[in-house]
Amino acid sequence: MAGQIGAAVAVAVALLVGGLLLWKPLRLAWRKPRFENARRSFHWQREHLEARFLQLAQTNAKRTTPRWTDCEFDDDVAYVRNRFTGELSAFVAVNIALENPADYPSQAQVNDSLEGGLLGGASFDMVGNLRAATAVFRFDRNHWETDGRAIFNLSPSETIRFYQHDLEMIGQEVAGRR
């Protein structure tokens, strides 16, 4: 009886070690076709995604921030994966035109009016009404989504570097090289 238990434990340990050794290659083999499908899907859905991005960004705007009047999307796309969750995202550089920012309180005025002086979000002190940002798109259950979130003052490559602990670049498409 003790010999059978020992043999069962040895088999279980061998299966566990074998599974651990095969896990990474199997996961990589599964992720590559998934990424290729996601990449193709992004191109098919891109026009709709950009329109949805603008709609949500304008709908979810805070009353203390300037409204977006226009948004230009770059052709380049950077694809990233969250190191912890495995979620795929696409980052696209955008130039966002805002209503006259002078009509809105400055970040310093908003901070002074808040208890503790803390406010999440970007400063609106700028020259002109154009802001550079990164539009964020997420791949969820075989389709792309957006919540209209832009990361202001960072290009896609700067965003990836800034969040390098959480994100890894898995692909990049530069206009003209697709």
Which descriptors would you attach to this protein?
single chain, 178 residues, alpha+beta, seven-stranded antiparallel sheet, 3 helices, 40% helix, 26% strand
Describe the fold and architecture:
It is built from 3 helices and 7 strands; from the N terminus they run H-E-E-E-H-E-E-E-H-E. It has helices at 2-59, 107-113, 156-162; strands at 68-73, 77-82, 88-98, 130-140, 143-145, 150-152, 167-173. Strands 1, 2, 3, 4, 5, 6 and 7 form a 7-stranded antiparallel sheet that branches. Residues 107-125 have low confidence and may be disordered.
How many domains, in number, for the residues? 1
What's the shape? Answer: elongated
The helix content is 40-55%
Number of helices: 3
Class of secondary structure makeup: alpha+beta
Largest sheet: 7 strands, antiparallel
Strand content: 25-35%
Distance between the termini: 64 Å
Rounded to the nearest angstrom, the radius of gyration is: 23 Å
Spans of 5+ residues with little confidence (pLDDT < 50)?
107-125
* Secondary structure tally: strands: 7
Query: What's the pLDDT, averaged over the residues?
Result: 77
Order of helices and strands: HEEEHEEEHE
